[in-house]
# Entry
Amino acid sequence: MRIIYFVGTAGSGKSSLVSAYKEWLDNNGIDAVIVNLDPGAESIPYVPDADIREWIELREVMDEYSLGPNGAQVVCADLMAMNIEKLTDVLGTYKTNYVLVDTPGQLELFAFRKSSNVIVEALGKERSMTVFLADPMLCKTSNGFISTMMLSSIVQFRLQIPMITVLSKSDLLSDDELDKVLTWFADPDALYGDMLDNDSDPQTVIGMELFKALEGVGVFGDIRHVSSKEETGLEELYAASQQCFFGGEDADIN
# Structure
């Protein structure tokens, strides 16, 4: 089996994309299971095959440790690593092609804590990849776009597994906005030019320095835009995962 972690900021559409992608895989005869790793999720648009809430639930942690939601989320992140064997035992009962992992809504709780590395190692780092969801509302401006690209780079640096970036919820953008954002991904010079047009903004000056750093490490390139609502871009997401895992071959894996 291959592990795909869906990672992104709160509200970027992780759970919706996991649900839509699972349905697309099912419709194309590709077996997959879903893991929910968000102990604070109150409702999710799918039925998980493994659910961290069976062992760790945010409200219970808040009560037990006398913590607010934020502090309890931090404790939950560490408790997930401590309970990882229970999760791997459940996954061991499945013979499947893909495990789709819906990570916590608070990105920093998964990507920036040591517990995330424990989880990735336990599930199989050598057969894992990340799908980073770029929020279209943030990517609409050049500064927001640069911030998103910087965040995606940090996530990849922290997790040390292959990653592809998708522009999520693309149906929320107008055609002109979508074209602009896609152009920024494919053509760094276009992004730099738009940033120069706003050089009176002090934040843009900082953004330009960040742009140079990102260009230096080669983060720009093609982007897949997806919409869970309109069910678009899912085939492209599958093709990108095949490229990542198997060099482009449409493998039938066990």
